[in-house]
From TrEMBL:
Chain's role: Lysosomal dipeptide uniporter that selectively exports lysine, arginine or histidine-containing dipeptides with a net positive charge from the lysosome lumen into the cytosol. Could play a role in a specific type of protein O-glycosylation indirectly regulating macrophages migration and tissue invasion. Also essential for liver homeostasis.
Catalyzed reaction equations: L-histidyl-L-alpha-amino acid(out) = L-histidyl-L-alpha-amino acid(in); L-arginyl-L-alpha-amino acid(out) = L-arginyl-L-alpha-amino acid(in); L-lysyl-L-alanine(out) = L-lysyl-L-alanine(in); L-histidyl-glycine(out) = L-histidyl-glycine(in)
GO terms assigned for molecular function: transmembrane transporter activity
Lineage top rank: taxon: Bacteria
SUPFAM superfamilies recorded: MFS general substrate transporter (SSF103473)
Protein name, as recorded: Lysosomal dipeptide transporter MFSD1
Membrane protein topology class: Multi-pass membrane protein
Ranges annotated as spanning the membrane: 45-67, 74-92, 163-184, 220-242, 254-273, 285-304, 310-333, 345-370, 390-409
Organism: Agrococcus carbonis
Length: 442
């Protein structure tokens, strides 16, 4: 445990996740090329992006159950294989249906990767470092996001569709080979990581056991509240909002997107240390981040006229913190479930943010359409992606943030009452802060 080999195994798992995020975000940045190749509207392509997110969300429970049955090595390798196949199909596709089938395979393989790497680190690491490892894994995925925005866009412009997507397939194949050669579920002699000792027989009772654990549901609502607003911004609506809604150039919009990613890369490790250091205060941290994101969005949306640039910077930084904030959800699952249920528990948690993203993405599109039609019918000469439309459409996110906040409060009350039964009392935060201050003075 916690050996050089642990880091090597985790590093290969993280590489497989970087490749998965690179596959995931590659179509988003290839919009104009895809629209030209398949002769379809950009809006149809963005709908396909949402479908991929939907496939990812639906696959979380089956993948989590398989993870508890077969372990992370099989799932990460299987995910890399399916994604490589999917990317080959996208690379060779001349017609849209083959590309869509390829993207569905990418969604399926992608779904298997993150929760398997999170599960892998629990087999190889022990102690407070495990809480930090989840953030490091998530941060490494952000590298995949960055690789898709600059190097992949450049490659696409240089060598065209087939070779650039073919290169991504090769990256996936390299990940597959490395996983097969180097990744094992646990060190030799380590605890068996699959099987059914002390747990009910069958996948359904085990899934229910994971779901009934309030800590799993606290993780679900944490992920639900915090991932969707960042996902929706990065994967679909952020770019049109910045360029068409607020009038920034495409280069400036790319800069704002990068701020989200870089802020996440800084905030992730800090949150990892905080959750490891103060495990009984994780939900307070989550509630503070949900409150911050809701507050910043509210100020942006009610600002008279266009929000100033500094406020947009504050917004993208808040979104950058929300991404790693959602990763805290997996830490709840880890600490409240036995290792052999962790796959199912992580699958449940990971569904939260992707269900919310899948719901909000089309709702924002529909609200934009409705607002545009009403204004045009009223004689106004405005575009579909006018800021006034975004102002109303993005307010939908406040409902998700409000629901998420309320559910985190509710689930933490239930979780804390269970802890109380086990003799662990979590007092109010101000009492803990006062005791900490007294300790420092004394
Ligand atoms: N918590 C996120 C990842 C993230 C985003 N920003 C920082 N961390 C997550 O749940 N990811 C799941 C996945 O499959 O990418």
């Amino acid at each position: 445990m916690n050996s050089a080999r642990s880091w090597l195994v985790w590093g290969v798992g993280a590489f497989a996740y970087i490749a998965a995020v690179l596959h995931r975000s590659s179509l988003g940045v290839a919009g104009p090329a895809a629209a030209e190749r398949f002769e379809v509207q950009a809006t149809l392509l963005s709908t396909l992006g949402a479908v991929q997110i939907g496939v990812y969300a639906i696959m979380q429970v089956p993948v989590g159950v398989l993870l508890d049955r077969f372990g992370p090595r099989v799932l990460i390798a299987g995910g890399a294989l399916v994604m490589t196949g999917g990317q080959v199909m996208v690379a060779l596709a001349e017609e849209l249906p083959l590309a869509v089938a390829g993207r569905v395979l990418l969604g399926i393989g992608d779904a298997a990767t993150f929760i398997s790497v999170i599960r892998l680190q629990s087999g190889w690491f022990t102690g407070p470092i495990v809480a930090q490892m989840s953030q490091w894994t998530a941060v490494s995925g952000q590298l995949g996001q960055l690789l898709s925005t600059v190097p992949f866009v450049w490659l696409l412009s240089q060598v065209g569709w087939t070779l650039s997507f073919g290169t991504l397939a090769i990256v996936g194949a390299v990940a597959l080979v490395l996983v097969l050669l180097l990744v094992y579920d646990a060190p030799p002699g380590g605890a068996p990581t699959t099987g059914s000792i002390d747990l009910p027989e069958g996948w359904w009772p085990r899934l229910l056991t994971a779901f009934r654990q309030p800590g799993t549901r606290l993780g679900f609502w944490t992920h639900f509240s915090l991932l969707s607003t960042t996902n929706v911004f990065l994967l679909l609506w952020g770019y049109p909002m910045l360029v068409d809604g607020l009038g920034f150039s495409s280069g400036e919009a790319a800069g704002f997107m990068s701020i989200v990613v870089f802020t996440g890369m800084v905030a992730g490790p800090i949150l990892g240390v905080a959750t490891a250091r103060f495990p009984l205060r994780r939900s307070t941290l989550v509630l503070c981040i949900v409150g911050l994101v809701a507050l910043v969005w509210t100020v942006v949306l009610v600002w008279p006229g266009h929000p100033p640039t500094w406020l947009v910077v504050v917004l993208v930084m808040a979104l950058g913190v929300a991404g790693p904030g959602s990763t805290v959800g997996f830490d709840f699952a880890r600490t409240f479930n036995p290792l052999r249920l962790l796959g199912s528990a992580n699958g449940i948690v990971n569904m939260g943010g992707f269900i919310a993203s899948f719901a909000i993405m089309p709702i924002i599109g529909i609200v934009l359409d409705v607002v545009h039609s009403v204004r045009v019918a009223g004689g106004e000469d405005v575009g579909l992606y006018d800021w006034e439309g975004f102002r109303i459409a993005f307010a939908v996110q406040l409902l998700v943030l409000g629901l998420g906040f309320a559910m985190v409060v509710r689930m933490r009350r239930i979780t804390r009452s269970r802890l109380r039964e086990e003799g662990i009392e979590v007092g109010p935060i101000w009492a803990a802060l006062a005791a900490w201050m007294r300790g420092r003075r004394g």
